[in-house]
Structure formats: C-alpha cells, structure tokens
Known about the structure:
The chain is mostly helical. The chain folds into 2 domains: 3-66; 77-141, no CATH class. It has 5 helices and no strands. The protein has helices at residues 3-22, 37-58, 77-98, 101-114, 121-141. The radius of gyration is 20 Å and the shape is flat.
Amino acid sequence: MTPLVLAVLLVAIAAVAAWQVTVIPESLMQMAVGPVLAPGVIVAGLGVLALVYAWSAWRGRQVDQSLDDEQAPLPGSGRRLLFLLGGGVAFMGLVPFVGFVIPGTLCGMGVARAFDAPLGGRSALVCGAIAAVFWFVFARLLGVGLGPALSWPF
C-alpha cells in the first residue's frame, strides 16, 4: 500500500469517526462536559494527524515500505493477532452471560499473550485485578452501566 493510499484511508476513517461523533445523542442532564466532548477531542486529534500524514505523503516525505524486504512481519505475527482478536471476541461474547470481570480478565490475557507474556496464574491475577479495578471505578464510582461484575448463568 502506498503512502498516498494509506493517507486517503486514514482521512476517510477520520471523516467517518467525525460523523459518528455528531450522531451521539446529547445527555438529558445538564452537564458542563457532555458525552460528545471526549470522543470529539480524540477524533479531532486523529483527524489532524491523518491530515498531517496526508500532507507529508503528498509531498513525498513518506517512504513506501512495501518495497523494503527488511520490513517483513516477525515470525508468529498471525498467532499474535489471533490472541489479540480472540481476547476481544471472548470479552464481547461472554459479558452478557458471566458479567464484566471474567471476560475482562480473558481479554487482558489475550492482549498480554499477543505481546508475548506467558499465560498462567500470574497473568490471570494481574489481568483480573485490572478488570476488577476498571469495573469498580467505572461502574460503582462513576455510574457507567457496565453490568454486574460477576453474573452466574445457573
């Protein structure tokens, strides 16, 4: 993929993201910071970066990496991608059935394994603690509807 094609794709993704921010419904509560602010700021920043990259590619300052044989993917990149995507799919598929913490732990373990961390008890404890703290902060302290921490289907 040439730098110009990549730049066009990045700008198109930023445009779609900007459109999605405009369709976020306004909150019914009167808040100084509404639900559009954070996504809007992030999308604006990413849009600026996409435009800067496009300008740089247009001026020929981006190198076409497809011609460089030294930039081949590392061995095991497909396996890493499967762990990364598998963790996300496990999270999305299991949250309605077993709550937030267990799928969050499995997702974290998938991401950790994608970055070559060993799977085991230590990884499960660290990822479980992160998922539990994340759930506590957002669901209990901030009131975001993440569902129950643990839910048993039986």
